[in-house]
Every structure is written in C-alpha cells, then in structure tokens.
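Quick question about two entries, pasted in order.
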Amino acid sequence: MPPRGHPDSPPGAPQGHPYPQSGPPPAYPYPRSGPPPGYPYPQSGPPPGYPYPPVYGPVRPPRAAPSRARNILRGLYNPLYAAQRAFRPARPGIVNDPEVRKLQLWRTGLGLVAWVGLMVTYNAVASADDVQGVASERLDQSWSSVLVLVCTFPVVVGAFVAAAREGLRRVYLRRALRPLGSVLAIMASMGTSALAMAPELAGLRDAVGLPGRIAIVVLFLWALGFALYGIGLSLVHVFRTADIHEVLPPILAGVLVWEMALLDVITGSYDQVPAGARVVFILGAPVTVTALSCWELYRLRRNHGLTLRTALGR
C-alpha cells in the first residue's frame, strides 16, 4: 500500500477525525454494494448484510383485451353476450353506482313477485291455459313497455340535447349513436319473429326452400334469446342512455313508468282485480320508480357532482 499522501493512496478520514467512518476498511479487496455514502434516498429490499436473497412471487402479465373480431364471433354463437354488448352502457369514464343497480334489480324482482301474487290471489291463474295466458300477457306488457320506450326515447333525448349548450350538443349527439343502435337492434330482433311466423310471408319461406327455412329458424331462435334478454337490459339500463349522460336514465325511466301507468288505465288492465287493489297496483310501479330515480339523481349529485344543470352546461 502506498504511504499516506501518495496520489494512489486510498482516501480516508482526516487526521484527528473524532468519529469512526462507515464503509469497508482501507484496502478492502471487494467492491462495495449498495448506494454511495450520503445517498439521500431510502433503499428498498433487505438491509445490507441480509444473508438470504429477496423472494418475489410470480407476476402475471395483464390479460389482453379480446379483439373486435373475437367479440363479434362470440356474439354470433351467444345471443346473450350479444345482448350485453348491445344494451349495456359502455362509455369510457361512465359513472356506475352498484347500489342503484342492485336496487333496480330488487325493484324488478319484487314487482314481478307482486304481480304474480295479485294474479293468483284474484284467481287469474286456475289452469295450464291460464298460466299460458298470464305469461303471454306479461310478455305483451314487456313488448308494450319497450315500444313506449322506443317512442319516448327520441322525445326525451331530443329535448335534453336541445336544452344543452352549443358546445355540448355535438358531444351528446355523437354519444347518442350507441343508444340509437340499441333501439334499432331491438326493433330488428322483433322483425325476425314476423319473418319466421307471419302468414303474409309464407310465400317467401316456401321460395327459399328447406335450407332457407332452416336458416330462418336458426335466426329466429338466436333473435328470440337476444330480444328476451335485451328487453330486460333495455328496461334496466333504459336503452343505455347513460352513454349520453348519467342523469338521463333516471329521468327517462320516470317518464316511461308514468306513461305505462296511463296506458294501463286507458286499456283497462287488471279488470278482474277490485278497484282499490288495481289503483294501488297501477300506481305502485310509477311511485316506486320515481322515488328510485330521485334517489339515483341525489346520489349522482352527492357522490359524483353530476346534476341536470351541469349536464346541460347551464
């Protein structure tokens, strides 16, 4: 080792330094690991001199999102998946409140149970034919709800877009393409039933021959599953109008249920039920849905700062 003061001598503490110095002793033959002395940032991992190497679990790579072609292929053989893609809101950054969705499902289930109980209590179901008639009536009511929603959709959405500020109108009109596509999808699925069963189209079914009739039956069965599941999703998500703005579904749902209640009064639904029970049953759905819609708007304002006024840019 060269003497102290030589240009090649290792650095050390100055003469008379009162404190011991950290680090390896002079002429330490191995390179020192770790940060240099005075490194200002804390180091992660085991402390210096720890005799065991750190052990980390295997890190899975993130799952790649399915491609568009794969989603289309899956929708071709699974109509329920296609209905989910068509009728559930999917705008990036959309606010989704799971508590409100849970209450909507409970409200739908309890409404169905109450409707079945009302029919059984007043002897609407007494035989297998009555069961078929009640199921057909319930399906017709669901179709009627969807048709009323289809007619109400452009009115409410058009009024909402027209009331928005100029800069927001183009944004909302662009966002309305997906809800409009869901409306067209449910109408097209309804049209396949006419293609398969309408007497007026019997000549067309005969003209395409056996392969064509098989294709029509397969298309009808696919469209039937798509439409039945799509009806439920359309009523819960209100034709995915949350893709336009989150405040639209509760507003549109409130308008829809009062229209359906008015339609029940005009058409004389549940005429076999006493007047008092019929009034309670007809008004129960709109009152419940209106309360739920108001609570949803309250949660959107309290938890997410979304109000009708801010949605319109006013």
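Here is the second entry:
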Amino acid sequence: MSNLRLSTVILPIDRWHDGGRAKWQRAEELGFHTAYSYDHLSWRTFREGPWFGALPTLTAAATATERMRLGTLVTSPNFRHPVTLAKELISLDDVSGGRITLGIGAGGNGFDATALGQEAWTPKERADRFGEFVPLLDRLLTENAVTERGTFYTAEDVRNIPGCVQRPRLPFAVAATGPRGLRLAARHGQAWVTTGDPKLYEEGTPAQSVEALRGQIEKLGKACAETGRDVAELDKILLTGFTPDRSGPLESVDAFVDFAGTHRDLGFTELVIHWPIADSVFAADQAVFERIATEALTQLG
C-alpha cells in the first residue's frame, strides 16, 4: 500500500443541521486522513450563497468526529490577527483532542482582501505581513506569555495558557511558492502546501504542471538547506483542482490512481480533493469520489 495520504476539503456552505454535520462524519467514515475547510469570509463563485466561518465549523466537526484530522486550507492575514487567532486555535486544538493542522498562507486579492475596509495589499505587502504573522503566531502558540511590537502586529503581554494539546504546538502547513514564503515554510512549517502554478491553469498542460511542481519542490529543498533543515522533515501537500488537470482526476478511480502516482513520485505525501459540489467548479460524481476515497490508494504500487 502507498504511504501517500488522501484528504478532502469540505467548503463551509451547508447549515450544520442540514447536511453539514453529515459531510464531516461521512469523510471520517471514508477514511480521509484530514478534512480541511477554506478560511475565507466568502469565495469566488460562492459569494452570493451560504458561507459559514471556518473555525466554528471545524469546532463543530471536532465534536462530530473522533479520529480524522481537521484543518484550514488556508488561513491568511487578510482578516486575521495572530493574537486572536492563536487563542481560537488553542481552543480548537483542545476541543478536537489535538487533531488540528493550520494551513496558512499570505492571502490574495479576493473578497477577504478589502472586507475590513483596507486597500488590497500589494504582493510585497502581503509577503511583508506574512513574514511577521507566522513567527509571531508560532511564539503565541508555544509560549505562555508573549510581548512583541512589530511593524504590522503587536502582542502586549498576551497569555496563552495552557497552550496546545499538540506539543510544542499544532502543526503549520505553509502555503508558498515564492522565496520568502518557502523560507517561512522551511523555518516554521511541519508541512508545505501548493496548488501548482496558477499561470498554467487556463492554457497549460498536465505535463507542464508536473514540471512546475517539480521546480517548486526543488526550491523548497534549497530553502530548507539554507536553514539547515532536511526537506524530508516536511510533508508536501498538493491541493488539487487548480492545475490544468482540473477535475479530470476525479472522473474515475483509474484516472485518480494515475494522477496520484505521478504526484507521489514527485515527492508529495498528501493529496487533497474537494468534496463534490453540484453546479460548481467542484462538481463530481459522488459515488466515484467515494470509490476514490476508499480504493484508489490501495491500487498504487
């Protein structure tokens, strides 16, 4: 059996008592390693429909499941502050019994970017903030008392007792492709996350995507070497659905096995597939999706 792990993303679009709880419980029944949710205020084509908060949803999911890990893909500084986020994460890690992974990224120019009234940050501003956000959050989750006065974020004698159930803190899965983000992943991450090269999504080919991902992993290795860390220590997570393959790997078990084998051979240790949503970019046959969840990894050589 392959050592590749298979996880899913469940978007927070369902009322908890009208299908929401059932999805998370079904994900655990299907054997997914982790079930993640997007940490946005709204997202793209879903903006005009129901969309619930990620952390409350994950807290509810923690009480409705027992074994499966839970997490965000991804949280960003767009509308989060390290001080308040740390307190919520410590609470969520406690409720879940230590099953939380924090996927974290620099954010983008989506609806979250201006929801609090600020101008959308430039890529450099996002990188600058992310570079301060991650180390401060690391401290807040590992130290009982923190004072830090940064350019963007301040913590004044903040207490976070008793800390995380997971020690020294819950794991970070850092989403990054640029040099500064990759260095953050190397220094602070237990995992690294990518969606591939967005420039290839519209007109690229699956083969070009594979080469782009190979290049990203090589850059991650260099970033780890610069910090004196073995890149093998980091899990490597691919959030699928944003490469030129799009939904193709979910069309059949065989298609997914081929996709999974190719990306496992690149060095990925975890693939994340979206829970099917009808009439959306994540539309897929539910029965095929469940067969992939239960059968695909056993077919990898």
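Reply: The chain has eight helices and ten strands. Residues 206-226 form the longest helix (21 residues). Hope that helps.
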